[in-house]
Design goal:
Layout lengths: L1 H7 L8 H46 L1 H26 L1
Helix pairs in contact: 1-2, 2-3
């Protein structure tokens, strides 16, 4: 759009048409670089979170205390689920 305005002949920017074109191109390249940097940073955060979650899951599954914790939580879940069913039936 700005280039169209520049080509029409009325522009309040300093410099020649070619200088303004170069300035616009540099702005666009800067915006593209910023978007890529943001996308890269986001992808690294997602990968880091996934690695962290895998570490937690491996700890829970393969360490004795982790296995015990999973058994306790499963037992409590089943106990309270069955208890609520019995209360509703009774």
């Amino acid at each position: 759009m700005l280039l169209y305005v520049f080509q029409e002949g009325w522009c309040d920017s300093q410099g020649t048409l070619e200088e303004v074109r170069v300035k616009l191109q540099k702005r666009q390249e800067g915006a593209i670089k910023r978007e890529r940097a943001i996308a890269y940073a986001y992808s690294q955060q997602v990968e880091g979170a996934a690695k962290c979650n895998v570490g937690i899951i491996n700890t829970l599954l393969y360490e004795p205390a982790g296995v015990l914790w999973i058994l306790i939580v499963t037992f409590l879940f089943l106990f309270y689920s069955l208890r609520s069913l019995l209360v509703m039936a009774g």
